[in-house]
Amino acid sequence: MLLCFGIGALVHSWSGEDQVQAASVQAKEQVIVKPGDTLWTISERYAPEGEDIRRYIADLKKANGLSTSALTAGQVLVLP
């Protein structure tokens, strides 16, 4: 029985499962909203080149659970 446990632990360590879990918990880039910022201005700064700003705004709202476009200075937004 102890042998089976040892073999299981060895196989688990070779499987790379820990690497998969670590990769799935990647840190997302965050932005702190400054006075005067809007979803549009933030999207213009951070959207990948060539991406439709309106699509990026929709993704930004979804990533942050926003139902409106209202922002508050100091609010932290996660970039999609």
UniProtKB/TrEMBL annotation:
> Which SMART domains is this protein grouped with?
LysM (SM00257)
Organism of origin is Paenibacillus flagellatus
Q: Which PROSITE patterns match?
A: LYSM (PS51782)
Q: Where do the LysM domain residues begin and end?
A: 29-79
**What is the protein's name according to its record?**
LexA family transcriptional regulator
Q: Which CDD domains match?
A: LysM (cd00118)
Domain of life, per lineage: Bacteria
Q: Which Pfam families match?
A: LysM
